[in-house]
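Box 3.1. Reading complex inputs
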Amino acid sequence: MERRSFLKGFGAVTACAALIPTITHAAEEAKKVTGPNEMSMESAIAAITGGKPVTPSSKVSLSAPEIAENGAVVPVKVSVESQMSANDYVKAIHLLATKNNNVRCANVYLTPANGEATFGTRIKLGSTQDVLAIAEMSNGTFLSAKQNVKVTIGGCG
Amino acid sequence: MRKLPMCTALFSLALCGMLNAEESMSMNAADKAMYAEMLENNPAAMDVAEGEEIFNALIGQEAYAKMLGIKVKDLPKTVAGFPRFVKAANKVVTLSQSLQMAMADRGHPVPKLESNEIIKMTAHVKSLANDQKINIDVKANKQMQEMVVLGQKIFEERRGGRGLSCNSCHSPDIVGSRLRMQALPDLGAKETASAATWPAYRMTQSAMVTLDKRMQQCMKNALLAELPLGSKEMVGLEVYVANKAKGNPIQIPGLKR
Amino acid sequence: MKTLIKIKPNSYKVGDIVKVDFMAMHPMESGMRKDKDTGQIVPAHYINEVNFFFNDKVLTKMITWESLSVNPVLSISLKVSGAGTLKVLAKDNKGESVETSAAITPKG
């Protein structure tokens, strides 16, 4: 099925020599979206779009529970309609939690090899808020979808 | 900040009768499906995998089965019957306690019931019984009969500053009514089957928790003195609660709020 | 850091799109939580980069933040182009890094 190897520190560096160029590219991408963790929503979006407009679109599906049982583990799934071909694909899916201290949850850079533009994970939400997904298309446009998630303090303890 | 005794609300609830379960507060079908899907990638999955590593390194199925007086192939069925009377202990023990016994048997220092090793090994060993129906037999012998009676007594006993018992929230009359947006669960019902779905990942604790620990957490919130893990009363309580869920398939690890 | 890769479904052909779930055991501390016992802030400790490769070619690169839940799962799709190795490299803000592999074995 799968085998695991654990590498730490220098071991990781030597084993991944071939991967270094791609990793530093990620670091460059990170710089674009990096800033103090407590970035405002506007700054976070500007860092992603470079100021270009973001258009809400039904091509972006964001699914998250309407009422989250608990804010610590909220399942979120994003999928964007796209043929994911070499010249028409979703370059990135950005997931943001509008009221979290750090609004950024994940910046996912896809390739046509994904076949489908999907991303799923679980996030922490500190309070009831909108979750926002921004899709960066290969033609340079930005599409979005958002959903409100109610975070409850349910039950007894 | 001292936790507000929200169970005063419960106390008046018990006096005033049932609350209506408002539709807007119920989890809709789509949300339910999302949480069910989370079980596929349970946050506790790797804790269970670690439990397997620890168990296999320190005890192993052969030695464990031998201590229980059974064959390795009968482990799933036997595990599905805990808490049970174990001859080697001459008393009724929980799955976790049986692992403590096995550790001692193998010459290892015995970890506490609340230790990570015991919690993870408990989850792994119980997961060997996944899909097996809980087959606890409270009539098996005198000791089991004694423990289920004790368990029921504890379940129904009002204690603590608010005079609450387990029954205050979990009796058949009150299950379904809401306490802070969540329906009070019937511990034996198919949808809950507590004994079949703990150890579970508790979202509020960000950790995997065992059934007896969960009961302690519940006692704490109801302002009842926590019964010590492994005490006769706690074991009796677990026998009673497991018996409620008899016939339900085991699914470890669970996922709970 | 303990990790796990799951491919779903477990039987597929070339051309199929499979789901890849990568799970890591990690506290994902936001750096905002106070330890109940010590009263001190628990320093931020979270996975901040996860890169997926198929046969050493970049499949997906991710920058992840402390808003992800404890023991996070990251799910993406993979269009099966042939047999090979899926490799995931995960790194956290303290510099610990883990490499995990899974075989991609299409039938026919």
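In summary: Chain C has a mean pLDDT of 96.
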